[in-house]
């Protein structure tokens, strides 16, 4: 197979013409109210109204939402964590911390406890009735959280040296604390914690830690600069210094290693290994590699900057940026089948594209002040939404709903997706 085979493009959903945001977003809908106290319906631009919107009194800003089977969890500027009922937005849980809450809470799919980091520097565990279960004081002023079945991991990325701390979700016992060179928690899973660890100013290595106590299971040799590393329960892949290497998750044995040259910053594990790369024409492209052998399967061009890659069992969706003829920047989405066939390509009406979410029938393209919902099958735009207040948004997408925090308004809403 040549290094970049001829591009195969499906016709379904393809759309070459440029569209303006005015045409895509449509017109405002009227405002109406719901019966739940504190909840209301709000206008969408060319799309359905939300099922509910909840404005929190005294909260002028909202943090990113998390979702369980019964609640939408969001921290607010009024220093409290709210658990809002999914069906109507009414309050089921309210827990007050010592500072505004700006990061996303974490929780199991059902029940509690819920974990939240506050700008007072403390990490809190809250049970399903809204009572404090435990609290670790002074952990970090800015942090990200991730939870597995047996571990809560907190990444303090505001300190001069990033620190990863592992906790027992129920008791709050500290299992480990380690300096890392990561700004994300992509390598945290039920049975392993894969992180980048600095060795010097210009060298680092990939390390696998036990979730139980943080002990080192295996580590790679020291390499120049900082690698990009991702992991799941079956494979660990790292890209650094012109090489892509796959490791066994249990023992760190090298499964395969290939030379890749200069590549971009995006590395994703799915049915295949996906890696962005810079092209001579100024655009970026996506490379796909076989998980078992490391063989390059295909390479396809996209826009000039890849912003998001979302992999599913049967496809991969790539969000990038393109130039509009009137001088603006627009978000573009490409869907590729596993053999590299481009199923569709859509230029959205969004002035940027920060992330993608994929459900059984929809693709949700997100920027920080709006989102656009497309057909997963054809790439056709179904509807778009941008707040009339121009508030920033933070989303959590579920199979039938989009839950949105209005960062600058102190509100949360639920939109129907199907």
Automatic annotation (TrEMBL):
Residues 50-182, 203-346 form the Pyrrolo-quinoline quinone repeat domain. It holds the Pfam family PQQ_2. InterPro entries: PQQ_b-propeller_rpt (IPR018391), PQQ_rpt_dom (IPR002372), Quinoprotein_ADH-like_sf (IPR011047). This is PQQ repeat protein. It comes from Haloferax prahovense (strain DSM 18310 / JCM 13924 / TL6).
């Amino acid at each position: 197979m040549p290094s970049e085979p001829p591009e195969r493009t499906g016709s379904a959903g393809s759309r070459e013409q440029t569209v303006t945001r005015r045409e895509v977003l449509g017109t405002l809908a009227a405002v109406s109210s719901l019966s739940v106290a504190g909840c209301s319906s709000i206008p969408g631009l060319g799309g359905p109204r939300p099922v509910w919107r909840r404005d929190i009194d005294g909260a002028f800003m909202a943090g990113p939402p998390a979702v369980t089977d019964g609640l939408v969890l969001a921290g607010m500027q009024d220093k409290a964590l709210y658990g809002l009922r999914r069906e109507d937005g009414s309050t089921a849980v309210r827990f007050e911390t010592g500072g505004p809450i700006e990061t996303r809470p974490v929780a199991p799919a059902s029940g509690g406890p819920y974990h939240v980091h506050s700008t007072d520097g403390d990490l809190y565990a809250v049970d399903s009735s809204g009572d404090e279960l435990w609290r670790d004081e002074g952990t970090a002023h800015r942090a990200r959280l991730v939870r597995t079945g047996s571990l809560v991991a907190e990444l303090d990325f505001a300190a001069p040296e990033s620190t990863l701390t592992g906790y027992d979700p129920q008791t709050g016992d500290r299992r480990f604390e380690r300096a890392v060179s990561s700004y994300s928690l992509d390598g945290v899973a039920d049975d392993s914690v894969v992180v980048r660890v600095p060795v010097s100013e210009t060298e680092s290595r990939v390390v696998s830690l036990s979730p139980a106590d943080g002990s080192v299971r295996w580590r790679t040799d020291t390499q120049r600069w900082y690698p990009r590393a991702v992991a799941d329960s079956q494979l660990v892949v790292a890209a650094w210094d012109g090489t892509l290497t796959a490791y066994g998750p249990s023992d760190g044995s090298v499964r395969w290693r290939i030379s890749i040259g200069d590549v971009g910053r995006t590395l994703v594990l799915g049915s295949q290994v996906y890696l962005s790369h810079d092209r001579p024409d100024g655009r970026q492209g996506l490379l796909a590699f076989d998980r078992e052998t490391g063989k390059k399967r295909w390479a396809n061009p996209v826009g000039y900057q890849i912003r998001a890659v979302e992999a599913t069992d049967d496809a991969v969706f790539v969000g990038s940026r393109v130039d509009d003829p009137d001088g603006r920047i627009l978000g573009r989405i490409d869907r590729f089948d596993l053999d590299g066939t481009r199923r569709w390509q859509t230029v959205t009406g969004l002035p940027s594209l920060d992330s993608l979410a994929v459900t059984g029938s929809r693709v949700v393209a997100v920027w920080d002040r709006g989102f656009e919902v497309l057909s997963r099958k054809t790439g056709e735009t179904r509807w778009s939404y941008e707040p009339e207040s121009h508030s920033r948004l933070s989303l959590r997408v579920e199979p039938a709903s989009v839950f949105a925090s209005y960062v600058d308004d102190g509100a949360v809403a639920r939109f129907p997706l199907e």
